Each structure stands twice: as structure tokens, then as C-alpha cells.
Amino acid sequence: MTTTVEPVTEVDPRYGETGAGPRPWAEAEALLAAAPLSWVSTVRPDGRPHVTPLLTVWRDGALHFCTGAAERKARNLETNAEVVLTTGGNRWDEGLDVVVEGTAERVRDRAELVALAGAWEKKYGPVWRFEPTEEGFADPHGSALVFRVRPRTVFGFAKSPSSQTRWRFPQA
Known about the structure:
Elements: E1 8-11, H1 25-34, E2 38-43, E3 49-54, E4 57-59, E5 62-67, H2 72-79, E6 82-88, E7 96-106, H3 110-124, E8 131-132, E9 137-139, E10 142-158, E11 163-168
Antiparallel strand pairs: 1-11, 2-3, 2-6, 4-5, 5-10, 6-7, 7-10, 8-9, 9-10, 10-11
Keywords: Oxidoreductase
Region (Disordered): 1-21
Domain Pyridoxamine 5'-phosphate oxidase N-terminal: 26-136
């Protein structure tokens, strides 16, 4: 599902080839929707960073992820909800890498959890089938909290030609 609000798009000429223009938001959004793996960066209570890979679903203009309540990232989010999610091709000579900055919010609405559970299964297959619960998701391995990150700022690092695009989203 696509974003309903178009971001302000800027290119920073300091970090790209001469004449390289901004990449379109639709390209970054498609990458976020299709990414098989993303990395979430959170901040521990003592200020140290914590980074871990996870599966994400792009829906209604936001990235969604889930994690067990006892996992480090969930515990970090209890004291600091600011996150960075990254994904891309991880190559220096081709593709687009995307960095999403925003605030993680718990998803608790039953209808939204049902839709997200369906989106996870559609994207990742039946091994990622979740049952929506009062707290988030359940599966044979336990339960998980579900988070939504609406982008505040997104950076796109393109190669060939190299450029850095920044997309800024209006905040509600």
C-alpha cells in the first residue's frame, strides 16, 4: 500500500555526482515494501546503540515490525521510541539503500492487527502466520508486540549515478 502524503523531496549535491537529481519517492517506497530484510536501530537505556535484523511490512505509509516483549529492542523502546530502519542492496556500485527515521508506536487496534497479520503472511509465506491477540501477535513460538513507524525523514543513497535524496514528511 502506498503513502497517502507526498513528502518534500530534496537532493544534497554534496553527496552525489554532478547533475544527479533526486530519486523518486515511489522508488524508495517500492523498495521498502519489497525488502526481504531490514535492520532496526534502537537506543539502550544507557545510551548505547542496538541494531538487529528483522522482517518488515510496509502498509498505509508506515513500516511495521514485531518483536517479543522481552527482546532487547522492545525493552529499548520502552524508554526511547526513536528508531532508524535501514534496508537496500548493500552494494557500493548499484542500487538504492534507504534509511527511515521515525518513532515506533505500538499497534493495538484489532482490525489493524488482522490486516497486518495477513500482510506478513502474504509477503513472507505461511511460516510467518500470526494470530492477532490483545497484545499483538501470537504464533506457535510465543507472542510478539507489533510496532508502526511512520517516516519523519527518509534518506535514499543511490549509486550509479550516486546521489543522496532526502524525503521529509509532514508530522500530524
